[in-house]
Every structure is written in structure tokens, then in C-alpha cells.
Amino acid sequence: LNNPRYHLTLGVSSYYTPEMFGGGVDNALTSLNKSYELFQTRKEKEEYYPDWGKDMVYGFLVLAYIKRDKEGDLVKAKEYLDKGLEAFPESGFLKGYIQKQYEEKVKDNK
After folding, report:
1. Cα 50 to Cα 8, 59, 77, 82, distances in angstroms
2. Measured on CA atoms in the order 26, 71, 102, 57, is the torsion positive or negative?
3. Are 83 and 65 in contact (CB under 8 A)?
4. Nearest 10 degrees: CA dihedral of 104, 73, 26, 39?
5. Exposed end of the chain (fewer CB within 10 Å): N or C?
6. What are the pLDDT digits (tens) for 35-91?
7. What string of H, E and C letters represents the secondary structure of the chain?
8. What is the pTM of this model?
9. pLDDT recorded at residue 97
10. Tens-place pLDDT, residues 4-33
């Protein structure tokens, strides 16, 4: 499927589903990265088509990289946070919850 919202919801579901039940952060990242790629090129055919989810994919990519916590993941999380805030400066999801999660992770790593 070439619908970014499908891959977004699959990624969010995988993020919250334990690996032993088919979820896990690596599965989430696969779906979320696919969603991100599709959102970069997607142009809706009609203006009344849904446009939700773009800020969510940035946020869940940040959360997934924080949760995976491998070398370089915090840098990737920061990159997606910055890109998301640049694209969606009014997003309460990114400015509130996601940014707070990132800052707490950085503080914990010091």
C-alpha cells in the first residue's frame, strides 16, 4: 500500500505491541520510516481528502528511536524532532509531549 496513514498506524501499533506478539520498536521503525517517505511525496487528489498524520510520523519516529536506544539513535531522534517542529511549529503533540520525552532522555543520559 502507498498510503502513509496505513504505515503510520501500523508503526504506532507495533510501537505499543510487545515484540513477542509481533510488534516491537524495530518493526515500528520500518513502518514509520515507510510512512515518512510516503508523506514526503504524497499529494492528495482533492483538498477534502484527509491530511492528518504528518506531525504524528515525526513524533513517533522520535519516540521509537528513543526507545530503541542504540548508538546514534538519539541523534536521529533529534533530527526528526527538529524537522517536525520546523514543518509543524504549532503541533501540540510535537511541542508538548514529544519534545518533553526527548529532553527527559537527554537528561537521563548525562
Report:
1. 14, 19, 26, 24
2. negative
3. no
4. 90
5. C
6. 999 999 887 777 777 778 999 999 999 999 999 999 999 999 999 999 999 999 999
7. CCCHHHHHHHHHHHHHCCHHHCCCHHHHHHHHHHHHHHHHHCCCCCCCCCCCCHHHHHHHHHHHHHHHCCCCHHHHHHHHHHHHHHHCCCCHHHHHHHHHHHHHHHHHHC
8. 0.93
9. 96
10. 999 999 999 999 999 999 999 999 999 999
Grid look-up 514526503 returns 40
Q: All 3 cell numbers of residue 51?
A: 491530511
Residue 78 identity: K
